[in-house]
Amino acid sequence: MKNQIKEYIHEAATLEQLYRTNPSAFKRAFYEIYPEIQSELSAQIWSERLRNRSEEITWGMAKDWIFVGVVALCIAFFMQLPDLLSISHDFYFPRNMAFIVMPGLAAFFAFKQRLTWKDLGVPFVLMVISVLFINYLPQNTASDTLILSCIHLPILIWMLVGYVYCGAQLSQIDKRIDFLRFHGDLLVMCAVIMLAGGLFTALTINLFNLIGIKIEDFYFRYLVLSALPAVPLLATLLVQQNPTLVSKISPVIARIFTPLVTLMLLIFLVAFIYTGKDPYNDREFLLIFNGILIGVMALLLFSVSESTKDAASQFQRISLVVLAFLAIINNGVALSAIAFRLMEMGITPNRLAVLGSNVLVLLNLIFVTRQLLGLLNGQKTLADVEDSMTRFLPYYALWAAIVSFAFPIVFSFQ
């Protein structure tokens, strides 16, 4: 988007259209390149406009709300579909939950950016193939490959949403980094909406209880179940229309929790060595260990996306380097334990899937850490760090696709 702003800085209509497609990303990109274009009168006008709008709450256009309303109704219909067609909840929701929530987000981004069917052809076809494949897998709740497909397909669908978010131009680094940053604001807004919804639910149920009417079963089965998956869609609309509403909260969260998690991870590693815990033969401990690693990796990527801004402090970036080093050590321990179990106990779908995921995470961590070290000593730029964060996204998508589609067939649906 930075290059587009520079290109269209003298074309008012085009620049206005670019702003309306994604106000949050536009404002962020504009102020990153403003020092380069501040001599332009149009850039100065846009700077004043964006600054003056920062305290206002924008509700968006009527057509945006109509679109979101229609998609929310579709989401509610699919949430109630098992009861309408007498389909087992245990069969339906683990396989289809990602296809209920994420396509709505993709549709919203496509609508806002006015993407054509040609742009959406690849993600649409992959989405349809994924839906058909996961729902035609044999019903066996003890099947490891079925569980792996249900876990990894949402990752693939999330990547497809990113493809649409980037305007079918996922190869552009600035759009990829905007997609990652967007999730920080989205999570904050979702939390606010759910807190408000929880308060409304408590008030509603207690008010009806006062007059002797029990509405809990109806309320949760129909209203909450239908509305909850639409929360990310509503949050997306609010974030897109009000880029400054929560954008200052995400960096605060990153700056507070990055040093805390770094300290916690360091204490954990010391305690891990002191207690002599054996990850090689304790399967439950290894699962929890990998879960912690995934959480640390998510925080690291989120924090790096915020800390690549010029305003990030040197202390924050040093904390990120230390966190990345500790995450590499954790990943190395987990990877060695997985490799040991593979050699001693044989190949299973679960072990092979976790091994591939850990290898990708380790390579990504090493690449990000290398760029962060280069940034600290002045040999790398912010663009290099951003590139290191997003470079592995296609590989995660590829591995998710392999585990989702190939594993059930290779391992005979076991």
Automatic annotation (TrEMBL):
Transmembrane segments: 57-79, 91-111, 120-139, 145-165, 186-213, 219-240, 252-274, 286-305, 317-340, 352-373, 393-413
Swiss-Prot/TrEMBL keywords: Membrane, Transmembrane, Transmembrane helix
Superkingdom of origin: Bacteria
Record-given protein name: DUF4153 domain-containing protein
